[in-house]
Amino acid sequence: MIKFIACDLDGTLLNSSKELPRDLRATVERLNKIGVTFAPASGRQYYKVLEQFEPISRNFMYIAENGAFVIKDGEVIVRDCLSGAVALDVIKRTRKLPSVYPILCCEDCAYMESSVGGYKPVEVGQYFRRLEFVPDLTDYCDTKNILKVAVYTPNDAYENIYKKLPEYPESAQIILSGREWVDVMKIGVSKGSAIKKVREICGWDKSECMCFGDYLNDYEMMFECGESFAMANAHEDLKKAAKHIAPSNDENGVMKSIQKWFGL
């Protein structure tokens, strides 16, 4: 029996207008009654995900920062930090690129440099609830618990960021987490690694876990859950990795699949 469901947000649970399903609250309440934990799993900051989901239910587990940070019952159960030296190097390299904005994502807050003149793109604002502007990000690399460096561009992130960064084979990984985003994280950290740790902590077998995703930052979790779903609108590589295909995010695919599976 399924006891745990991890669900990506953008392109998966949220529709193209960034709206939550109308039947999410009722569905989660029914899942809770039969002992199933529902976990939003996102590259977003924990505080932003909490802001969106806490009004619906207080029983969520939160997998944030693409798996680097997991909260259960208000307690941190997973915290995988990036090396300050790697963060420093990424910031120095990306701040030189045109229309590219590094964001230092720490446990307490996210930070951007005030040299951007207070520029806060809509794409940045919708992912961070706690965001401060500081004179120099490099001042924070040795003093903060760094979960990742998120790098944003309004242009093609693959061409303008991903291809411009070097490899960090011993300490970090570079993840294309969206069409406009690149995340630099501790090596081996992903939504999949977070789910594996959650399973160990909670005593859940892989066969008791389900997940939903649409993009490449969801790839690893497809292999950590016995029942994995890629959305109809998902990246083709994710569809190949998933066990099932759910209707698209604009067809309320996650809720329809869960309701069908559990007979809700």
TrEMBL record:
Cellular-component GO terms for this entry: cytosol
TM region positions: none
Presence of keyword Hydrolase: yes
Keywords: Hydrolase
Entry keyword Oxidoreductase: no
Molecular function as annotated in GO: magnesium ion binding; phosphatase activity
Protein name, entry field: Cof-like hydrolase
Organism: Monoglobus pectinilyticus
